[in-house]
Specification:
Length: 222
């Protein structure tokens, strides 16, 4: 999953970014509202963390502009603690969730995961598809027979994206865009390598190749 973090507090970014990456997110950062708005329109993020007090353009305006342009990306706003009016303004501008500063990173990650699952139409407390259960804390997958399988970081990110989008044909480009950060040297052939490894771990039949189109994860109904 790919995240956009729009935050001008460099210290907070330095703390958040590695923690979010450990949680399996690819993270792009914008330190002002203008760049943040632009990136949010140009790149296919799975969620955005948006600070409200930003240089160049306030977070509320950024959010309102996205929604006016029908940009549906899930947005969690960071508000000042106890500023209930900021939360109300945030929701009115189109926020999906909020977190008051200061906060625990664990809570941020839990809220983001819930937000992304909900927006993918899977409101359950965990990702479960086609007999597989994903343990997002341990970055392991539980197979139908109860076996626990360790995943590498990339395998985990790839499987999570597949499980969020079962039965959809996902092109290599789309997978690459959601797995890696903007400045990553994207070689979409790498995806083939990771798909092969993932199939070895979860069973070949789980991921179909659709020639010339991409890959399809067989979920519950497929
Ligand atoms: Ca700020």
């Amino acid at each position: 999953m790919r995240l956009l973090l729009v935050e001008d507090d460099a210290q907070l970014v330095a703390r958040l970014k590695p923690a979010l990456k450990r949680a399996g997110f690819a993270v792009d950062v914008a330190d002002n509202g203008v760049d943040g708005e632009f990136l949010g329109d140009e790149e296919p993020y799975d969620a955005v963390i948006l600070d409200l007090g930003l240089p160049q353009r306030p977070g509320l305006e950024v959010l309102a502009n996205w929604r006016r342009k029908q940009n549906p990306v899930p947005v969690l706003v960071l508000t000042a603690r106890d500023a209930w009016h900021e939360r109300v303004d945030g929701f009115k501008a189109g926020a999906d969730d909020y977190l008051g500063k200061p906060f625990h990173i664990e809570e941020l990650v839990a809220r983001l995961l819930a937000l992304v699952r909900r927006s993918a139409g899977q409101p359950s407390h965990e990702l479960s598809q086609g007999g597989l259960r994903l343990d997002e804390d341990q970055q392991q997958v539980l197979l139908a027979d109860g076996e626990r399988v360790e995943l590498t970081g990339t395998e985990f990110r790839l499987l999570r994206y597949f499980m969020l989008h079962p039965g959809e044909i996902l092109s290599k480009t789309r997978l690459t865009e959601h797995l890696y950060e903007q400045d990553f040297d994207r070689d979409s052939n790498l995806i083939e390598v990771y798909i092969r490894r993932l199939r070895e771990r979860i069973g070949k039949e789980r991921i179909e190749t659709r020639r010339g189109q991409g890959y399809l994860f067989r979920g519950e109904a497929s």
